[in-house]
Write a structure and sequence with these properties.
By secondary structure, this protein is of the alpha+beta class. It has six domains: 3-101, Beta Barrel (OB fold (Dihydrolipoamide Acetyltransferase, E2P)), CATH 2.40.50; 103-182, Nucleic acid-binding proteins (OB fold (Dihydrolipoamide Acetyltransferase, E2P)), CATH 2.40.50; 197-270, Nucleic acid-binding proteins (OB fold (Dihydrolipoamide Acetyltransferase, E2P), Beta Barrel), CATH 2.40.50.140; 278-339, OB fold (Dihydrolipoamide Acetyltransferase, E2P) (Beta Barrel); 365-444, OB fold (Dihydrolipoamide Acetyltransferase, E2P); 448-528, OB fold (Dihydrolipoamide Acetyltransferase, E2P). 19% of the residues lie in helices and 38% in strands. It has ten helices and 30 strands. The chain has a five-stranded mixed β-barrel with strand order 1-2-3-5-4. β26 and β27 form a beta hairpin. It is elongated, with a radius of gyration of 55 Å. The termini are far apart.
Length: 559
């Protein structure tokens, strides 16, 4: 019988037959039992063993767990399959001997679900090969832990507590699990937690995951949620600023839902609330110092002490500057002085003022810049509606586009003004409450329109120079910078667009003055018609005088 056939025969034995076979190993039967053998030679592939028979036995070196630790002269237990094979050598097996020796222990551990210690030997496809009771067993990757194991190679050489979950007696196939033990331990810890821990207790755990809204903490069988709002009394942008995966921390249990098995945790509750007594420490009007920790579009957050922040709104940053973004005034990390404006303990808000830490430049503004006074300033900005003029540091006035010129129709101040230019203006209006000063440039000189109105009332005769010929009228210049229009119906030449020339001087009558629109309407026709009436009247008078003279001469002759 070959060695292969004998192995197959052994694998087909029943459990009872295997037990009897194990018991028979203690007899002196040369075949089918366990005997002591002495190593006489070691080769790279085989180990030669003297088993006290006429022939020596050969064992593949792969049957030894640590082949580098064996040496010539060592005694080992072997199972004798045959006294002699075709090559004249005894057929022996170390693995069979090892398996038969620990059979009872393996069976007892399996049937009674005992926890045993396994030594990790090597990594194989799908898991690990481990040594239990001196024989090999398979630990699947899914049974190593309750969560996927990223680096199974790191477990080689370590000892693990396992439980036999599958046993094939005939094939000597053993499957073990570590996960089942961990799950049981976790379940026991979970039950113990919910039966013993109450709200307000301080517990210790390990951070297992960090998200945008908080962190999950392993409390030993139970996961608790530490929300970002319960991490710090101060402002944090992300939980990762405080915690990292693997951190061991102490937290307070702030809420337990035993039905849904949910636990809410608090980290900031481990220290006193800095907002207690906040009104006494930061009364309105108090000057404080703080570090700028965040800048947003509407203002800057300032840390006054750990866990206490105040907001400087953009509107409270300057008395006079037109601030588009808080970063124009403050910088991240900068230490600034501010004044406490308001404290809201309930909502944990403190309103701060940056400008209140400095004198208000608008105090006494009416005395420094009375209405009607002449002032000088530098143009700091040009917009479509006007120009901002700096009168002193922190004080600007607005020169509206409509107050630049009496006569010119200006679409944009840049047509006549430049940024950085020093100009003189007249103060038109001062509004301290709204912090506005209205300036006028044209008001430095008399209004030519009103002067013209006084000198040339409706019906008076004026002379104008043609400066523009439009489809329905002609524009004439009456004085420097003052223009009037002559409607087509008030012109005497036809077609007027061909008969009138630029720079031509026309004698006209003031037909209408529209004060609200600052328009002067002129008429050539009225002037021509009036001239014709005047000439006719002069002719009539001349004829009348001639007739009287002739009559007078006749009376003298007849007399």
């Amino acid at each position: 019988m070959t060695q292969q056939n004998e192995v197959m025969e052994l694998e087909n034995l029943s459990e009872e037959e295997l037990r009897k076979l194990y018991e028979e190993t203690f007899t002196e039967k040369p075949v089918g039992g366990i005997r002591k053998g002495k190593i006489v030679k070691i080769t790279p592939r085989e180990v030669i063993v003297n088993v006290g028979m006429k022939s020596e036995g050969v064992i593949p070196i792969t049957e030894f767990e640590n082949p580098e630790e064996i040496k010539v002269g060592d005694e080992i237990d072997v199972y004798v399959d045959d006294i002699e094979n075709e090559e004249g050598l005894a057929v022996v097996s170390k693995k069979k001997a090892d398996f038969l020796k620990v059979w009872d222990k393996i069976k007892d551990s399996y049937e009674n679900e005992r926890t045993i210690t396994a030594r990790v030997m090597r990594r194989v496809k799908g898991g690990l090969m481990v040594n239990v009771f001196g024989v090999e067993a398979f630990l699947p990757g899914s049974q190593i832990d309750t969560k996927p194991v990223k680096n199974m190679d790191a477990l080689v050489g370590t000892n693990l507590d396992v439980r036999i979950i599958k046993l094939n007696w005939k094939r000597r196939n053993i499957v073990v699990s570590r996960r089942i033990i961990l799950e049981e331990e976790k379940e026991l810890a979970r039950k113990k937690f919910f039966s013993e821990v109450k709200e307000g207790d301080v517990v210790e755990g390990v951070v297992k995951n960090v998200t945008e809204f908080g962190a999950f903490v392993d409390l030993g069988g139970v996961d608790g949620l530490l929300h970002v709002t319960d991490m710090s009394w101060g402002r944090i942008s992300h939980p990762s600023e405080i915690l990292a995966i693997g951190d061991r921390i102490k937290v307070m249990v702030i809420k337990i839902d035993r039905e849904k098995e949910r636990v809410s945790l608090g980290l900031k509750q481990m220290v006193p609330n800095p907002w207690d007594g906040i009104e006494e420490r930061y009364p309105p009007g108090k000057r404080v110092k703080g570090r700028v920790i965040s800048i947003v579009d509407y203002g800057a957050f300032v840390e006054l002490e750990p866990g206490v922040e105040g907001l400087v709104h953009i509107s409270e940053m300057s008395w006079s500057q037109h601030i588009k973004h808080p970063s124009e005034v403050v910088k991240l990390g900068e230490v600034i002085e501010a004044i406490v404006l308001d404290v809201d303990k309930e909502n944990q808000r403190i309103a701060l003022g940056l400008r209140q830490a400095f004198p208000d430049p608008w105090e006494g503004i009416e005395k420094r810049y009375p209405v009607g006074s002449r002032v000088k300033g530098k143009i700091t900005n040009l917009t479509s509606f006007g120009a901002f003029v700096e009168l002193e540091e922190g004080i600007e006035g607005l020169l509206h586009v409509s107050d630049i010129s009496w006569t010119k129709k200006i679409k944009h101040p840049k047509e006549v003004l430049k940024k950085g230019e020093i100009i003189e203006c007249k103060v038109l209006k001062v509004d301290r409450e709204k912090r506005r000063i209205s300036l006028g440039l044209k008001q430095l000189e008399p209004d030519p329109f009103r002067i013209f109105m006084r000198r040339h009332p409706v019906g008076s005769t004026v002379v104008g120079r043609v400066v523009e010929i439009r489809p329905k009228c002609i524009v004439v210049e009456l004085e420097k910078g003052l223009e009037g229009i002559v409607p087509m119906s008030q012109l005497v030449r036809r077609p007027f667009r061909e008969k009138y020339n630029l720079k031509e001087r026309l004698t006209l009558k003031v037909m209408e003055i529209r004060e609200d629109r600052r328009d002067i309407v002129l008429s050539e026709r009225m002037y021509v018609e009036e001239e014709e009436r005047r000439k006719k009247e002069e002719e009539r008078r001349a004829i009348e005088e001639y007739r009287k003279k002739v009559e007078e001469e006749w009376r003298k002759k007849e007399g």
